[in-house]
């Protein structure tokens, strides 16, 4: 189990403007990630050191976005002004997570601008919607060389996550200590004063730490 990526829902001015604004803060441009046809969403991504990446995602005017929990989650967060949607951990055995949570994973795919297709399974988005401090789980099915973190500039990496929540609650959800997937990332836990979830992320850049 390891941290895979962070997801940021586009603000009302749209995907491109949101990604440009965050990219300017970090000093690095996002790249077009493509469309998630099963979820009715699309994203732009920034590969980061340590095998992780940052995505900015927006909902499309597509029937899938009304049915798929991920599309619903993105729509709701963007409608509330946009911002941090959640964090995602990659697992080697999705069946173990399915058994522990008592539900089945769903298939995910992303049509890349290159024409290639990225494939995975994911589980836990509905719980993220109810309790945003909780990550959801992903099991990649495409080859490792297609992972969105590939090609990252090692000078850009996630340094710190600030989460409003309860580490014990998150550990119970993960089925192991919360430190396991976040071993290379510092986590600052804050008692929730309202909705739990990611408050901010700090990124190491050539210009120093940048807080988003």
Order of helices and strands: EHEEEHHEHEEHEEHEEE
Class by helix and strand content?
A: alpha+beta
- From the spread of the alpha carbons, the general shape counts as globular
* CATH architecture verdict: Roll
Q: Give the distance, in angstroms, between the N- and C-terminal Cα atoms.
A: 25 Å
**Count of folded domains:** 1
Number of strands: 12
Measured as a percent range, the helix fraction is 10-25%
The CATH class, by name, is Alpha Beta
Number of helix segments? 6
List the helices and strands and how they pair.
Blueprint: E1 2-9, H1 15-26, E2 31-36, E3 41-48, E4 52-59, H2 63-67, H3 69-79, E5 83-90, H4 94-101, E6 106-111, E7 117-123, H5 125-130, E8 136-140, E9 157-164, H6 167-174, E10 186-190, E11 197-205, E12 208-211
Folded structure, characterized:
The protein is an alpha+beta fold and 212 residues long. It has a single domain (2-154), classed as 2,3-Dihydroxybiphenyl 1,2-Dioxygenase, domain 1, CATH 3.10.180.10. The protein contains six helices and twelve strands. The strands form two sheets. An eight-stranded mixed beta sheet has the order 2-3-4-1-5-8-7-6. A four-stranded mixed beta sheet has the order 10-9-11-12, with no helix packed on it. The longest helix is centred in the N-terminal third of the chain and has 12 residues, at 15-26. It is globular, with a radius of gyration of 16 Å.
């Amino acid at each position: 189990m390891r941290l895979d990526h962070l997801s940021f829902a586009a603000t009302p001015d749209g995907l491109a403007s949101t990604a440009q604004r965050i990219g300017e803060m970090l000093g690095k441009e996002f790249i077009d990630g493509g469309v998630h046809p099963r979820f009715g969403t699309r994203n732009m991504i920034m590969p980061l050191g340590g095998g992780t990446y940052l995505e900015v995602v927006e909902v499309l005017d597509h029937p899938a976005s009304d049915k798929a929990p991920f599309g619903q989650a993105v729509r709701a967060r963007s409608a509330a002004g946009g911002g941090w949607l959640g964090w995602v951990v990659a697992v080697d055995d999705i069946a173990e997570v399915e058994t522990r949570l008592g539900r089945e994973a769903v298939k995910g795919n992303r049509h890349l601008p290159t024409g290639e297709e990225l494939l995975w399974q994911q589980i836990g988005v509905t719980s993220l919607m109810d309790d945003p401090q909780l990550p959801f789980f992903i099991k990649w099915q495409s080859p490792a060389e297609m992972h969105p973190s590939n090609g990252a500039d090692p000078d850009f990496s996630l340094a710190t996550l600030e989460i409003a929540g309860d580490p014990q609650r998150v550990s119970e959800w993960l089925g192991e200590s919360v430190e396991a997937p976040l071993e290379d990332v510092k986590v600052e836990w804050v008692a929730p004063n309202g909705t739990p979830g990611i408050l901010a992320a700090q990124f190491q850049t050539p210009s120093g730490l940048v807080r988003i």
